[in-house]
Amino acid sequence: MVELLDTQTFFELLKLPYPTDRAGVIDRLLRERLIDQSDGQYAIRRLGALLLAKKLEDFPDLARKTPRVVAYTGTSKLDTRLDQTGTKGYAVGFQGLVQFVMNQLPQNEIIVDALRKETKLVPEVVIRELVANALIHQDLTIGGASVMVEIYGNRVEISNPGEPIVPVERFIDGYQSRNERLADLMRRFHICEEKSSGIDRVVQAAEVYQLPAPDFRAGHRRTVVTIYGPKPFEEMDRNDRVRACYQHCALKWVMSERMTNQTLRERFHLGEDKAAIASQVITATIEAGFVKADESVGGSRKFARYLPFWA
């Protein structure tokens, strides 16, 4: 029975030496409540299979919970290049899943220190955090639906079954897990970050890699995150700019800092001569109801600071 689980990787993820005998392996699985024992018989719990299965198809009620990766040739769903469904449990298959997604991403060209550099459309840290997030926060009670990674020529969409428990605009500072035991074990396996910090890292990476702000959306019984490839400020539309301004402001808040015209210019890689343009973006974001002026610094335009609407 325990042969259906990848116990070797389980101990590696916990950074523990592999027990010298089978009894040691079973004892650890029992202590972690991943298997049950009754009358000398062992049964794998659902969580144990979901995390550690060598093949999820060996567990009929979990077979449809394997993550699916679909890659398209262009920017629409018209032409599917690849459609692959995973086989392993989430913990033991996670690294392979992330690498598989990275291998499917289109190459992109960015300018670093005036030199052209080939890079993947989206950095690995972003894929890693968003895939972990989707696995952990999915609604496992929704049948026939799984986590999906859809790769287009200009963006990646990562979605999971279930509408979010936390409003999408509070993803940066809020946290509530639908599957606390699953989340706790994934953290102990060093697959995901401490509570809520994963989304902060995604937003921060988008700023560092000059990407448009990720788009978090609640769909019909599904939560969707879209992360776009690099796009210069001039090509961003009003929604892109407002979303980036709000996320930058929220990120500053959770880091115990405050957004200013200068920090927003740095986020968009705009020079000092573009201060008026940054002001226009801030005004549009205030009008959209996402940020507000920090009253504690008075009405001075020069020293103006801004807070997320909920602060």
Structural commentary:
The protein is 36% helix and 19% strand. The protein is of the alpha+beta class. The strands form four sheets. It has a six-stranded mixed β-sheet, with helices on one face. The protein has a two-stranded antiparallel ribbon with strand order 1-2. The longest helix has 17 residues, at 238-254. The radius of gyration is 22 Å and the shape is elongated. The model has no long low-confidence stretch (mean pLDDT 90).
Q: What is the CATH class designation of the largest domain?
A: Alpha Beta
Please indicate the count of domains.
3
SSE pattern: HHEEHEEHEEHEEHHEEHHHEE
Beta percentage is: 15-25%
Number of helices: 10
Helix content: 25-40%
The CATH architecture category of the largest domain equals 2-Layer Sandwich
Task: State the major sheet.
Answer: 6 strands, mixed
Question: Do you know the CATH topology of the largest domain?
Answer: Heat Shock Protein 90
Q: What's the gyration radius in Å? A: 22 Å
Let me know the average pLDDT. Answer: 90
Structural class: alpha+beta
Can you count the beta strands? 12
The backbone outline, from C-alpha atoms, is elongated
- Strand order in space, largest sheet: 4-3-7-8-10-9
Distance between the termini: 52 Å
Low-confidence stretches: none
